[in-house]
Amino acid sequence: MSFKLTILGCHSATPRSLAHTTSQYLEMNNDCFLIDCGEGTQRQLRKYKIKFSKIKHVFISHLHGDHFFGLIGLISTFNLLNRNTELHIYGPKGIKEIILLQLKLSNSWVEYPLHFHELVASQSEIILDNDKVQVHTIPLQHRIYTNGFLFKEKNRPRKLNMSSIDNYPEIDICDYQNLKDGKDFICQDGSIILNKELTYDPPRALSYAYCSDTEYTESIVPLIKETDLLYHESTFLEEHHQLALKTKHSTAKQAGTIARKSNVKKLLLGHYSSRYKSLELFLQEAHQVFEPVELAEAGKEITVTR
Amino acid sequence: MSFKLTILGCHSATPRSLAHTTSQYLEMNNDCFLIDCGEGTQRQLRKYKIKFSKIKHVFISHLHGDHFFGLIGLISTFNLLNRNTELHIYGPKGIKEIILLQLKLSNSWVEYPLHFHELVASQSEIILDNDKVQVHTIPLQHRIYTNGFLFKEKNRPRKLNMSSIDNYPEIDICDYQNLKDGKDFICQDGSIILNKELTYDPPRALSYAYCSDTEYTESIVPLIKETDLLYHESTFLEEHHQLALKTKHSTAKQAGTIARKSNVKKLLLGHYSSRYKSLELFLQEAHQVFEPVELAEAGKEITVTR
Question: Which residues participate in Zn(2+) 1 binding (chains A, B) (predicted)?
Answer without folding.
Answer: 62, 64, 142, 213
